Q: What sequence folds into this?
């Protein structure tokens, strides 16, 4: 493994992060926030400079094909590096001076988690608000995939980066060349973002609010511009966001195919499972929160369930005040996620479907020991290698969740924070699954500002691990990965 070449590619990603900072800098100028515009520009220049130095150092190795091992290292280290540099606009403008808080906010942005330490986003300047939204939009589809689509530097090794970063079991190719696939996925992503922004602008949102919410909806991120999240806007805006959250939680490769064959949606077994989970959970929520104002109950229930399943993190209702039985369902939905190949976090419905079908097959095998029963998801037979991979992922996911909950409980206990088990477990599940709000002290009516510093670092690390599907970050700590 060439460390110089890895540093060069990571430098290009950091440089791209710096270039993106000029967008909120221009926004700050438009809204006459001249001091912030200058500081955000300075943050961009520093980031580009550091990225350029790393790229120039690694450039000496020349363009070569990346191996799978190098792909995992690049993705893991790139996300950590760009998160650190992503803190600079917050620190330079003085909006979040503490490095721990700035890193937490940036990690929640890039990983599309949506957890926040900002008491009232409405008090932030427009440049910083757009930077928060932009980090989620870039992290949604993946800045590495964007680099694969645009930067020739990555060459044919780009598929290894996508395999390491894709939010699902495997990257779904639409064309033989992955760079062309990445361009088509980003095209769908951009078109959906523009359409949603226009629809929101047609309602009660300003153009700025519409763009910011389109960024954070399509990325399933959930950063808002108001302390009330989506409850601050009209029923029309909420229904628009519901539709686009559902679209964002659907495989973007499926969207592209469905442009010419709309029936592909219903023919896709994972899409039917995804839609079924949202529908059933919404009905349970409606029954459980039944009240006189049926319109509000239906909208709030559908919005909340869609937000949870797609791991968007928006809120129109305080589900932390729902009956205990519904809170158990809410906690369980933090482990679901949207379809593989979507911008959602958590475990993904594909894996859950495979686990369920594999369990049914194992039960049949016990009754009929000599029978041969292939595992199917829809009409497709799931290869044994995929089943084994899904089972390993599930075990590792649950192990990290339980270990993280224990560690978070110990950390907050030593720091004197009075957090109950529900707070600890939901904070870890929500951060690891890139959901955003948890329950109890970190519920939708609160935020993560009261979490001790060490707890914030732990949750930030879990956000990155969860967004990258565990392996690219965990592998960084294995001896075998770094051996020549």
A:
């Amino acid at each position: 493994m060439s460390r110089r070449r890895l540093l060069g590619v990571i430098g290009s990603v950091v440089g791209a992060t710096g270039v993106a900072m000029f967008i909120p800098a221009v926004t700050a100028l438009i809204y006459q926030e001249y001091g912030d515009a200058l500081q955000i520009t300075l943050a961009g220049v520093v980031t580009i400079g550091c990225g350029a130095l790393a790229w120039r150092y690694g450039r000496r190795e020349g363009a070569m094909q990346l191996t799978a091992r190098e792909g995992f290292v690049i993705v893991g280290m790139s996300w950590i590096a760009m998160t650190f540099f992503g803190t600079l606009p917050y620190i330079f403008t003085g909006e979040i001076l503490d490095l721990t808080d700035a890193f937490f906010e940036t990690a929640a942005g890039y990983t599309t988690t949506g957890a926040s330490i900002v008491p009232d986003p409405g008090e932030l300047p427009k440049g910083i608000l757009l930077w928060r939204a932009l980090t989620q939009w870039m992290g949604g589809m993946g800045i590495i995939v964007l680099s694969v689509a645009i930067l020739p530097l990555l060459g044919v090794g780009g598929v290894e980066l996508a395999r390491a970063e894709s939010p699902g079991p495997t990257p779904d190719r639409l064309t033989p060349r992955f760079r062309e696939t990445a361009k088509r996925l980003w095209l769908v992503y951009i078109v959906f973002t523009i359409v949603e922004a226009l629809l929101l602008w047609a309602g009660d949102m300003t153009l700025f609010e519409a763009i910011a919410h389109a960024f954070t909806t399509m990325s399933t991120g959930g950063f808002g511009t108001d302390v009330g999240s989506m409850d601050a806007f009209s029923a029309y805006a909420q229904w628009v966001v519901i539709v686009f959250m559902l679209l964002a939680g659907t495989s973007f490769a499926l969207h592209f195919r469905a442009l010419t064959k709309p029936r592909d949606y219903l023919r896709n077994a994972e899409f039917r499972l995804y839609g079924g989970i949202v529908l059933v959970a919404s009905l349970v929520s409606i029954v459980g929160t039944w009240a006189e104002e049926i319109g509000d109950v239906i909208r709030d229930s559908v919005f909340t369930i869609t937000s949870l399943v797609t791991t968007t993190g928006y809120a129109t209702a305080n589900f932390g005040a729902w009956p205990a039985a519904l809170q158990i369902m809410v906690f369980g939905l933090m482990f679901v996620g949207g379809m593989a190949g979507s911008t959602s976090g958590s475990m993904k419905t594909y894996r859950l479907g495979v686990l369920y079908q594999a369990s049914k097959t194992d039960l049949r095998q016990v009754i009929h020991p000599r029978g041969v029963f292939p595992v199917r998801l829809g009409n497709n037979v799931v290869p044994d290698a995929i089943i084994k991979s899904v089972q390993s992922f599930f075990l590792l996911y649950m192990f990290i969740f339980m270990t993280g909950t224990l560690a978070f409980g110990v950390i907050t206990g030593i720091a004197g924070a009075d957090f109950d088990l529900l707070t600890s477990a939901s904070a870890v599940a929500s951060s690891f699954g890139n959901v955003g709000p948890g329950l109890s002290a970190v519920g939708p009516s609160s935020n993560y500002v009261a979490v001790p510093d060490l707890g914030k670092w732990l949750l930030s690390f879990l956000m990155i691990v969860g967004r990258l599907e565990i392996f690219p970050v965990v592998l960084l700590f294995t001896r075998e990965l770094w051996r020549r």
In short: The longest helix spans residues 384-414. Strands lie at 376-377, 380-381. Residues 1-94+120-165 form one domain.
